[in-house]
Amino acid sequence: MWKLFPVNSVYWWNGKLENSKEIVSIVKTKKVNWEKVKSAVIKLHPYETPCIIKIDVKMNDDYESWINKEVK
User: Fold this and answer.
1) The whole model's pTM is what?
2) C-alpha span between 35 and 1 (Å, rounded)
3) Which has the least CB within 10 A, 24, 38, 39, 72?
4) Could you give the CA distance from residue 4 to residue 23 in angstroms, rounded to a whole number?
5) Is 62 exposed, middle or buried (0-12, 13-18, 19+ CB in 10 A)?
6) What pLDDT, in 10s, does the model give residues 20-58?
7) Burial class (CB in 10 A: 0-12, 13-18, 19+), 70
């Protein structure tokens, strides 16, 4: 499962305040896929330092069953 959201980011980079349009991506997968997803983002992302965050979550039983069935 993959969602994309446009955002306007303001951040310091190399001593300068930057303002740029970016895309936030939320990827829902199993814990076992974390390293594969992280490696793929690093390989494909144009930034020198992409923000890649893993969030462990609790979910309802029906959704967990569905994710386990659908995600390889």
Assistant:
1) 0.75
2) 16
3) 72
4) 6
5) exposed
6) 999 999 999 999 999 999 999 999 999 988 999 999 999
7) exposed
Cβ neighbors of 44 (< 8 A, separation 6 or more) are none
Half-sphere exposure of 7 (CA within 13 A, CB side): 11
What's the farthest any 2 CA atoms get from each other in the chain?
48
Number of residues assigned to the chain: 72
Rounded-to-integer distance, Cα 6 and Cα 69, Å? 30
In CATH, the architecture of 2-70 is 2-Layer Sandwich (3.30)
Q: Where are the domains of the chain?
A: 2-70
Distance CA 55, CA 64 (A): 15
Query: 33, 44 in Cβ contact below 8 A?
Result: no
